Amino acid sequence: MRHIFVYLNILFLALATNAQQVTFSKFPARLQLFPRDNQDSAVVQVAGNVLSAGYQKIALKIYRDAVLWKQMEQNLDYATGEAPFSFSPKIFAGLYEYRFEVWLDNQKVAEEDSIVCGDVFLINGQSNSHPGATTYSFQSEFCRSFGKHTNYDDYNPADTTWGLSTPEGWCSDCDYAVGVWGLRLQQMILEKYGMPTCIINGGSGGSSISYNLPDSNDHMNLSTTYGRLLYRATKAHVQNAVKAIFWHQGESDSNTPDADYYAARFDTLYNAWRQDYQPLTKVYVFQLHPGTCGGDRQSDVREIQRNFKKTYGNVHVMATCGLVGHDGCHYNDDGYLQMAEWIFRLVERDFYGATDTLNIEAPDIREVYYQDADHRSIAIEYDQPVIWPEDTLNHSMKDYFYLDDEFGYVKQGYTINNGYTVVLDLNTSMNAGLLTYLPNATYNRLPTMAYEGPWIRNERGVGALSFYHVPINAGPSAISESEALPEQISINTYPNPANAGVRIEFELVKSTRLTIAIFDVNGRKVATLASQHFPAGKHYLLWNAGAENDQILSSGTYWIRFKANDFEKARKIVLIK
């Protein structure tokens, strides 16, 4: 062991001595992630000057997974007293680690290792944006972060190192902390797509949206949470390659007057992001969960958040309603892991070409209207099929729809139109003008007990977005009628459930090119039944309940998807064998 120690000290001394002959203006850092471009690669610049004459050549050696992969050389010219050099090799995204070595003639003068190429994401908000793990543990050389998570503390500008992401979060001096769901998101991207990632988490517990706004005179003010995150992204050289920002915040603004300013303040924040992180492809917003750590205007904030996707073309809103493990304010590890799973489906669709796109968004309403002239039933049109939950021992979903802020008027609820429409039958004729789904924070008549369901969900268990004070129209609008389902196609399957074969009937209102395929619950395509033009009218197909390779499929839930250029529809099929 003593001989190894002596050798390492001699090697370090040799590198330090040789390095005095070279200055670097550009050189990768240990554990650095370089953002990939559209060609799944990144240029790594190595540049500087050789200070002392006498050396003939400078070489850059690049090792990939410890094997020499690429070598470049340049002749040195001391015309100005120092010899400049510059290399611009490309590395490629994937499960590769690169080591860079610089040699003067036969002497190594610098090296850095564990360099990767991949994708960059940012997280910001209040405490649910950066939760610390209780039991969840994961670490990988391909999941990176940069700098420290300091919560409310000013940032030390010297903290500019790369490291492996950790699931820490609720702390003020944590290296490379990305929180539970942030790290789980990295893990899922890694395991499914083999892509290294960097997440930088700038969350600050209990912070209001105004606290998260930039200093208008200095966006990189290190005493602000906005400036700290921007500084870290800039020093990591990723600020112009951020694919998405995740925003999880709102409890601290669910009061008067802050709720009144929430939309305007988010607009300021959003535009600052667009300015400082060009080009920012996506923003993912988590809608608040009803809870006891917010104020008396949580419903207002949730409604504002629900409408962000209508205001901003690149914003997606994910529900938190229906997540497990909520304690009225935060979640246990299982809840945060489920949060990562829900948002991962959107990320993999938007950035990794996933075909698993059925019911991955949180259900949202299209319109609310009275179904009849007597106003004894209300229809709620959703943008995807939803499920009306069974009553629990103590609570019924019907009691958490409010007509003009009052509950108790709904006799029963159920779905029609293949789940796209929720119907509320009323106890009496009503002239209410506004409908709300979910209480502000707690159960009816239980002002200290945070609401934890029942919930409207889609077929995959994702909770529907809550809504607040949505006008109840006298009847369906022209838009609703034109979008009513079935629209371009009507579909029937039988028997369903089935144990051998399934007959599929569909009717088209016009000639359409359709791809008809079967997917399992994980979004994996198991069979393609047709991909062709079909004339208007009725058509019939028979699926033998098998896969394309004649593999026998197991019992379970499958989806038949009809996809055309201008629409996509799906139906659930259950196999029982």
TrEMBL record:
InterPro entries: Carb_Esterase_6 (IPR052940), SASA (IPR005181), Secre_tail (IPR026444), SGNH_hydro_sf (IPR036514)
Gene Ontology terms, MF aspect: hydrolase activity, acting on ester bonds
Signal peptide: 1-19
Highest taxon in the source lineage: Bacteria
Ranges for domain Secretion system C-terminal sorting: 494-574
Keywords: Hydrolase, Signal
Keyword Mitochondrion tagged: no
Domain Sialate O-acetylesterase per the UniProt entry, residue ranges: 119-343
Protein name per the record: Por secretion system C-terminal sorting domain-containing protein
UniProt source species: Caldithrix abyssi DSM 13497
